[in-house]
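Inverse folding, one chain.
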């Protein structure tokens, strides 16, 4: 991992188009395409704005309904309170996964589905003694199985995504980093997440480089679609990146670190959950 201080005008939290245009190298006056749009042409409004509005309404409706339901059932039937919260995760996971077409996000929907279904089955069994009874041990085992599935997803999805991008972006080109946008990942209200190691505080910032490269006599200026603190290029550094020959504005820069961390976390989920299941089985 590399860390840089965002203290120059070519590294900012928001992409400044006027600054970006000023650093584009185009001595021969060739056509410039910035993030897939020819320079000077305004972006068209999204055609699926109605669909996006409906999805936003659904998310807001489910969130408010889920919170109200959780508050009500927390006093009447606590297990159903968990179902209400699970329904929120289920809808958010499904909507986000469909819109982003991201496999790992489906794991959120899977967690929400289990959180929704298990308490309902548990409550139904308590009110109907002759029906299927969901015991505490069974719930724990189902949760552990879910953790194994989540772990497998964390291990597999990043590599599947990598293989797809490598296949799609089949050609390589030398590109120059001319700009970097950044933001901070924080779990609190501070603008910067800080880790104290040996009495020293370190700010952790993630970056998205902007690359300039030329394909077929056209200058492309493209921002990476992910933020990372792995293998961050310096301004002016030239790297080899991959691009889609049918859509040169779609680029991919393979970075092993972005796949290593979820793989390790997923492996921990699988190993620890499997060991717990094995211990529970032997103690029964």
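Residues assigned per position:
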């Amino acid at each position: 991992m590399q860390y840089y201080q965002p203290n120059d005008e070519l590294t900012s939290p928001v992409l400044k188009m006027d600054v970006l245009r000023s650093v584009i190298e185009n001595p021969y006056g060739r056509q410039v395409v910035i993030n897939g749009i020819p320079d000077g042409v305004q972006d068209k409004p999204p055609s699926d704005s109605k669909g996006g509005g409906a999805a936003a309404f659904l998310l807001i409706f489910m969130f408010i309904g889920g919170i109200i339901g959780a508050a009500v059932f927390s006093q009447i039937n606590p297990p159903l309170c968990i179902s209400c919260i699970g329904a929120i995760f289920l809808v958010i996971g499904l909507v986000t996964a469909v819109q982003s077409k991201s496999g790992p996000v489906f794991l959120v929907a899977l967690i929400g589905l289990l959180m929704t279904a298990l308490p309902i089955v548990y409550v139904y069994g308590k009110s109907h003694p002759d029906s299927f009874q969901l015991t505490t041990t069974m719930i724990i085992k189902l949760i552990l199985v879910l953790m194994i599935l989540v772990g497998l997803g964390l291990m597999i999805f990043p590599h599947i995504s990598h293989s797809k991008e490598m296949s799609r972006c089949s050609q390589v080109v030398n590109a120059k980093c001319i700009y970097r946008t950044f933001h901070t990942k924080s779990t609190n209200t501070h603008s910067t997440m800080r880790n104290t190691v040996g009495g020293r505080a370190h700010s952790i910032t993630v970056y998205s480089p902007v690359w300039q490269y030329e394909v077929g006599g056209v200058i492309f200026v493209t921002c990476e679609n992910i933020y990372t603190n792995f293998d961050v290029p310096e301004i002016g550094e030239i790297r080899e990146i991959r691009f889609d020959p049918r859509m040169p504005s779609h680029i991919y820069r393979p970075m092993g670190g972005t796949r290593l961390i979820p793989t390790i976390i997923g492996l921990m989920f699988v190993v620890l959950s499997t060991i717990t299941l094995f211990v529970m089985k032997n103690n029964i």
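The CA atoms of residues 104 and 153 lie 7 Å apart. Residues 49-164+262-283 form one domain.
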